[in-house]
Amino acid sequence: MSHDTLIPAHPEPPALPLPFPLVLTRGGLSGFPSPAQDYEGRTLDLNERLVKRAASTFFMTVTGDSMEALGIHAGDLLVIDSAIEPRPGHILVASVEGELVVKRYELIGNRPYLTSGNPSYRPIPAADLECQAWGVVRAVVHEYLV
Amino acid sequence: MIGLIDCNNFYVSCERAFQPRLEGVPVGVLSNNDGCVIARSNELKALGVEMGTPAFELRPLLRQHRIQLLSSNYELYGDMSSRVQQVLEEYSAGVEPYSIDEMFVRFDGFAPEQMLAHAQELFTKVRRYTHIPVSVGIAPTRTLAKLANRAAKKIPIYGGVCVLRPGSAQCEALLQQVSLGDVWGVGRRLVERLGLLGIQSAWDLAQAEPKQIRQRFSVTLERTCLELKGIPCIEMNDSGEARQRIMTSRSFGRLTGNRQEIHQAIRQFAQRSAEKLRTQNSVARAVYVFLKTNCHRPDLPQYSPSTIVELPQPTDDSRDILHAASQAFDAIYRPRYLFMKAGVMLVDLVDANRQQLSLLDTPESRADRERNDRLMATLDKLNGRIGRGTVTFGRPSASAAWHLRCANRTPRWTTHWDELPKVH
Lengths: 146, 424
Known about the structure:
The complex is a heterodimer of chains A (146) and B (424).
Chain A lengths: L2 H4 L39 H5 L6 E6 L14 E5 L9 E6 L2 E10 L2 E5 L8 E2 L5 E11 L5
Antiparallel strand pairs in A: 1-2, 2-7, 3-4, 3-7, 4-5, 5-6
Chain B lengths: L1 E6 L2 H9 L8 E4 L6 E4 L1 H5 L12 H5 L4 E4 L2 H17 L4 E5 L2 E5 L5 H19 L3 E6 L2 H13 L6 E3 L5 H9 L10 H9 L5 H6 L2 H7 L2 H11 L16 E11 L2 H21 L2 E12 L12 E10 L2 H15 L6 E9 L2 E2 L11 H24 L35 E2 L1
Parallel strand pairs in B: 2-4, 7-8
Antiparallel strand pairs in B: 1-6, 1-7, 2-3, 5-6, 9-12, 10-11, 10-12, 10-13
Helix pairs in contact in B: 4-5, 10-11, 12-13
């Protein structure tokens, strides 16, 4: 099946940007003022959606296939927020033996582990002193070759 | 209350944030061009390596893999510094950067027992959010906050946080332990002269009669004396403070978003800072520029950016400093925000006479430097004799490019898409 039958070519690109609700309220006075505020009413900003707290948000690039089973591929961009307290089920970046790795935080038999959903990578016991949470992955950006 | 938040071994901490394997290892950060140590981890300090040690002297240690040396990565440090500042802004009534790794923070309306809890929260939050460990010192005055910070860092029982209240037994005990030379703004010569009067410790100075101190010494020392008693009287831009950094900043008379106007102010501040730099016979390695919107106008969009631009080599040349400041301004200025304040800070100052000759130094560049020195001296003489601002600089051409040597620079982890940390 060719792509043409799956996605019909648009006769012409839409002339207007996508509609969106106008945000006029601010969430209180505290907190980091979104850098997007000044653009309200003009265009959507991915920062506003993915970055909740600029001071604690870091970007990292994924290498390797250890997390493919969980939908995280080599080359993906991780949006990490170090302000979030890690809870079981979170995908997180952790420092393990001096290296930064991306893993899933899980409880196995009540003990914390870092897992990867890939049987060829053994779960890492997270209670280890050499293992520390660095930040919680809030979003994964996977870009396609276009 | 005023807090002084100091990032511990800041440059090294920035590097460690993204390379946990550097934790526990002796790490030094080098200046890019003259190759001497400008920041040290505690482990490197413990090996007896002093600030300013030339890199080549460390070669034996390096060969034995006992230490790690990195080129400075100012872009990273600037970004991490503004992250720390952002978190502090969230937890306080205002932040004034004092240097790239020290910030004065205002706290209003805390009951005594709340203050300590808040300070401890700040201590943990900054570390967790930004990966930069800090020490927190809080007191009613800047001079005491400095001392509190030092105690927080050096005395283990404080665990990184110290709140000082004048009149408390704890405050008295601490002031008695602190020698005069460690008090903010008290230089070596003053220590000797005060010693003759039997004033040995910070506590002795705090007990002195301020009027007498003014008569025998100076208004500056009178202020220090009052501050030690808990009476605030030193503001940010006061002269007479220790000059490890030079800051020129000012609030605009009114809110302005005009690019030319703000740029003009930045250029003025840069020139003024360069003058101050030459007066004290230092050279700077980098230029830090910040803008601030009015945080007391929640109805207006807020944006208080800052950035740092490294100089090609340590310099006191107004033209280089101006250019760097303009570059920094271009990087952070955004239209549609109304700014209230701007400032230029020169950081990582070195004594001009002790400056190591750069490896790139050639006879021509030496001749160049001498010519530049004469130009700057003439400039200062004219401005001194006829009045400040008599001779200033026009706009430099936009084409002057910066070439830096940075053999061992870590990636700019947080500011370049193609240099992001990699995780697997």
